[in-house]
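dumping this here before i forget
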Amino acid sequence: MLIVEALLLKALAIPLLARIAWLDFTTQKIANRDVLLLLCLGMGSLLLLLLRSGSWWDLGLSAVAGLVLFLALFPFWILRKIGAGDVKLMAVVPFLTGGNDLVVFSVLLLVFALVTAAAMKNPFLLPAGAFRLYVQHFDRKGVVPFGVPISVAAICTVTFVIYKSVVLASSSGILDQLN
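structure:
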């Protein structure tokens, strides 16, 4: 049953990530309270999985990845190339996705960051006129809401982790044993 609770904590992070993406898109700010709540959800999920497996590997890998991401992105914040909220969000996401699924998150982040960069460079390719004007405002200001691709990649990764766990549970017969 610990797996179900761990997956529930991950699922609770999806609406919070959507909120972070929307607020970053509209206000270019990521609240510390939202990042701390994500950290609590991620740590809780990892601790529940740790209790079940008895292995510290996933938690340790997530902590190291979070620290490496924070240290790698911190100089970009000092140079004002990326916001402090984006740095903190990137440092917390490994706790949410888990160390074993960081590759999935990294690939998705690369794809969504490239899509965001393309949208910022070519706003006329977008369908809605109002959205075009909004993106042009970002281009003039030089501000790109990097929390949006981070959040979307994290949502997709968490959804993949939940799907993978449900498929594994149903194919191994665990769900039949619970009924």
